[in-house]
Specification:
With 623 residues, the chain is α+β, with helices and mostly antiparallel strands. It has 23 helices and 23 strands. It is elongated. The structure holds adenosine-5'-diphosphate and magnesium ion (MG).
Length: 623
């Protein structure tokens, strides 16, 4: 029978990626083995899972394994598995295109730092292509479980690949690498043994290496040629805590997470009783690139009595803990569980509650080490804040983990530390939301607090305004947004009388300002919070803050223009001058005072042309 060979072009991104990868990971070429073995192991996991429903899929071959064989003479390296295999179409799709939409991101993220880049491969679902770092030509032979047709894929990694129908007696995938001349180290038994130990010790499938016949020597007995298991292949989480070293935990983490940094912390628990499960949960040191993409893969690896069930089981942790990596092995779930069943099972909720509690106490324990904690906070703090809204039951616990910039010192403070230094008369926990710390710290709204020695939390994350709508109290102290409504009582007393006196004389002025600014402001009044600035804007208690408004608008909702209250500093020279100014000059001053108040808050000018024109006319009088 003559073979029909079909030629296919790689998707453009693949060609690009191949060039980049070969070029930039050249001196980190070891990673190819990690990627190919990890694919083989995934294929075995998938086979085991598919066969849960259909035992026939094993076809009499149910001992899943990965075999590696080196042919030194011909510089060939072969990695075979009896996993699920691929159909012809799957082969074309999986090894000719990049399904993962993160590819562009991957290319962007390539830093030139080979160590880092080598680790990105695994995260971005482009691991297979790393074979071309060491091989001139790659041949894949594969037969899918339950099918009789087998297919060959062959490529030199330069723009195209070939597909052929072939005979293959056993299920699974065999990948044959024709190694480059300078990659001959990968047919060396010692090198291969070391790599398998390094990369595959935590894979639950046995990885075997072909050993040539050994003759009897002084030191060893003779041995016939054959495959020998190299890796441990024991589910790490089933072992006893006391037997496991930090290195083993870390090694396992890197094998399940594709993260090159060691984890910050982990918790490993075996639970028996009304719930029966083992969990091993890790706190990563670095946020993944897609942390803020709520659709990105997340969740735990789910096993049921050591049988791999699924990756990214997201049902067992809340969204705001989506950065946690780990495994859950639960004896109480049925083996044929599906995502739908999980979604609706009561047991899922119980497990979720239990695991959430474990993660929160793990994070809490990390906080004992302030420096490590700040590192964690920088990476994941914003996401954790989502929990204040998402998980009201744990609000108090989450709140204890929060850190904020604040007025009275550099660096971050916890809410507990803030409360500890509150003045006895203080009404609540004062806070200000702003675009950045720099903008916040020059806000006129802070002047009176600074003058009187009150601390104010400064919140600069986009989610803050949204979160603070639902997070009103901590340890019986209320939060007070200092950009809203009236100044708290305890700060107002001193200046009250003088102000009341001024106000009565100024009704005419306020009317004039309202006429000039129209619907840009809802009210004008003298301020009790200003010390050195002439003007500021405050929101009424019900107004949406500027950040919230941005979020709502970004989600396509049209929001009415906000109408803040303009407050003036009655003792400021400019304001005093305004009270006696001529009509034209008064107009100019009003536009300038309003514009400055907007700028001081980091808002865009709502009437830039008036602001610039008025400022220039005023300046023209003095130059
Ligand atoms: P990822 O493993 O992250 O999906 P890879 O580039 O490593 O990305 O592999 C691409 C895809 O090719 C895999 O998702 C899988 O579907 C398929 N594949 C690769 N190797 C094998 C294998 N040994 N057996 C079955 N399928 C495989
Ligand atoms: Mg892979």
């Amino acid at each position: 029978m003559s073979q029909v060979t079909e030629k296919f072009e790689f998707q453009t991104e693949v060609s690009k990626l191949l060039k980049l990868m070969i070029h930039s990971l050249y001196s980190n070429s070891d990673v190819f083995l990690r990627e190919l073995v990890s694919n083989a192991s995934d294929a075995c996991d998938k086979q085991r899972f598919a066969a849960l429903d259909d035992d026939g899929l094993y076809g009499g071959d149910s001992e899943l394994k990965i075999q590696i064989r080196a042919d030194e003479e011909n510089r060939l390296l072969t990695i075979s598995d009896n996993g699920i295999g691929m159909s012809r179409q799957e082969l074309i799709d999986n090894l000719g295109t990049i399904a993962n939409s993160g590819t562009a991101k991957f290319l962007e993220q390539m830093t030139g730092d080979q160590k880092k880049d080598a680790h990105l491969i695994g995260q971005f679902g482009v691991g297979f292509y790393s074979a071309f770092i060491v091989a001139d030509e790659v041949t894949v032979r594969t037969r899918k479980a339950g099918e009789s047709e087998a297919t060959l894929w062959r490529s030199t990694g330069e723009g195209s690949f070939e597909i052929e129908t072939i005979e293959k007696s056993d299920r699974g995938t065999q990948i044959e690498l024709k190694l480059k001349e300078d990659a001959s180290t990968y047919v060396n038994q010692y090198k291969l043994t070391e790599l398998v130990k390094r990369y595959a010790d935590h894979i639950t499938v046995p990885v075997e290496l072909y050993q040539p016949e050994q003759e009897k020597t002084e030191y060893q007995e003779s041995k016939p040629a054959g495959f020998e298991q190299i890796n441990d292949a024991q589910a790490l989480w089933t072992r006893d805590k006391t037997e496991l070293s930090d290195e083993e935990y870390q090694g396992f983490y890197s094998s399940i997470s594709h993260d090159f940094m060691p984890p910050l912390k982990w918790v490993h628990n075996k639970v028996e009783g009304s719930l029966n499960y083992t969990s091993l949960l890790y706190l990563p040191a670095k946020a993944p690139f897609d942390l803020y993409n709520r659709d990105a893969n997340k969740g735990l690896k789910l096993f049921i009595q050591r049988v791999f069930i699924m990756d990214d089981a997201e049902q067992f942790l809340p969204m705001y803990l989506r950065f946690i990596k780990g495994v859950l092995d639960c004896a109480d779930l049925p083996l044929n569980v599906s995502r739908e069943i999980l979604q609706n099972a009561q047991l899922t909720n119980k497990l979720k509650t239990a695991l959430t509690k474990r993660v929160l106490s793990m994070i809490n324990a990390l906080a004992d080490d302030n420096e490590a904690y700040l590192g964690f906070w920088k990476e994941f703090g914003v996401v954790l804040k989502e929990g204040l809204v998402e998980d009201p039951k744990n609000q108090e616990k989450i709140a204890g983990l929060l850190r904020y910039q604040h007025l009275s010192a550099e660096g971050l403070t916890s809410l507990d530390d803030y409360i500890a230094q509150m003045k006895p008369s203080q009404e609540g926990i004062y806070y200000l939301t702003a675009e950045s710390e720099a903008v916040a710290k020059q806000s006129p709204l802070l002047e009176i607090f600074e003058k009187n020695g009150y601390d104010v939390l400064i919140m600069t994350d986009q989610v803050d305004e949204w979160v603070m709508q639902q997070f009103n109290q901590y340890k019986e102290k209320s939060f007070v947004d200092i950009a809203r409504g009236e100044l708290p009582e305890d700060l107002t007393q001193e200046s009250d009388e003088a102000q009341d006196d001024e106000s009565s004389k100024s009704d005419g002025l306020f009317e004039q300002i309202k006429t000039t600014l129209g619907d840009k402001v809802s009210d004008v009044r003298f301020s009790k919070r200003l010390v050195s600035s002439p003007s500021c804007l405050v929101l009424s208690a019900m107004d949406l803050g500027p950040q919230m408004k941005k979020i709502m608008e970004a989600s396509g909702q049209s929001m009415p223009d906000s109408q803040p209250i303009l407050e003036l500093n009655a003792s400021h020279r400019l304001v005093k001058h305004l009270q006696n100014a001529q009509e034209a000059e008064a107009q100019q001053l009003i536009h300038v005072l309003f514009g400055q108040a907007e700028l001081a808050e980091g808002r865009p000018l709502s009437e830039p042309e008036h602001y610039v024109k008025s400022l220039n006319e005023l300046l023209a009088k003095v130059v």
